[in-house]
Amino acid sequence: MYNIALIPGDGIGPEIIREGRKVIEAASKIFAININWIEFPFGSEHYLRTGELLPDSALKEIEDMDAIYFGAIGDPRVKPGILEKEILLKTRFYFDQYINLRPIRLYKGVPCPLKNKSPEDINFYVVRENTEDFYIGIGGRFKTRADQGHLEVLRKLYKAKIQVDFNLEQEEEMAYQIGLISRPGTQRVIKYAFELAKKKNFKRVTSVDKANVLTNIYGLWRDVFVEVSSQYPDIETEFTFVDAITMFFLQRPEWYRIVVTPNMFGDIITDLAAMIQGGLGVAAGGNINPEGVSMFEPIHGSAPDIAGKNISNPTATTFSGAMMLDHLGEISAARAIENAVEKVLSEGKVRSNDLGGNSSTQEVGDEIVKKLKEINIKCF
Ligand code: IPM
Ligand code: MN
Question: What predicted TM-score, i.e. pTM, was given to this entire model?
Answer without folding.
Answer: 0.93
